Amino acid sequence: MSDALLRNAIDTVAAQGRKVRLWLRDDDAVEPTEALDRLLELTHEHMVPVTLAVIPKDTGTPLIRRLDKAPHSSVALHGWSHHNYASAAEKKQELGLHRTAPVVLAELKEGFDKLAALYSARFIPMLVPPWNRIAPALLPGLPSLGLKLLSVFGKEQPTSPIPLVNTHVDIMDWHGTGGGRPADALFAELASWIGREDAPPMIGILTHHLVHDAAAWTFLKTLLAITATHPACEWVSPDVRSSTRTSSR
User: Fold this and answer.
1) Which portions of this protein are annotated as coiled-coil regions (predicted)?
2) Would residue 246 count as lying in a domain?
3) Is residue 241 over pLDDT 60?
4) Cβ atoms 94, 81 nearer than 8 A
5) What is the DSSP code (8-state) at residue 179?
């Protein structure tokens, strides 16, 4: 495993008197599991905040109790049920226009209200669309639901009507092994994001604790060990007060 590219990228930022701001988003939490325990223990060990994209339909008291023991965790809205309404010929999507916009937005409002009530101050008013996909026509309706942030995958687009806090490096090999991607490729990809002239204010790492294999866990453990103690790195949580509205750049 070669992490030299990442270390060099961080050291370059340090030499310039700047900092790398990173954030960790983990998707599909519903209830406590051994995998979630492992994620929470690992992030706690390195004092790294983690934002859990929680599916509201089936979550409840057990996860509340587990997260009460993990003060470094926060909760975001992950759709309503993580149900795919797209056809077999389309990419999976819950928040598309396969149903009417009022129906989709009403479900999101129900999910928002449920998570806000269950998780209180731990809840961030941020939508994480299942599969990182949402129909553009739905975006203007999100603020009226109480949502202040949107998080999908990839470079933030300048036309978004709602502030974006995206993830940029997905550690999973969804179209190959189904497990963790090769560490060398992940370190190189993260180094590339750090070195970009148009690097986002916060570079997001995307994980899915329920499907992590040994490679995924090893990469994440190494990444946290490298970055959590580096003076030029800062792990942060999404904050509506400090997020950047990309359309105003």
Assistant:
1) none
2) no
3) no
4) yes
5) S
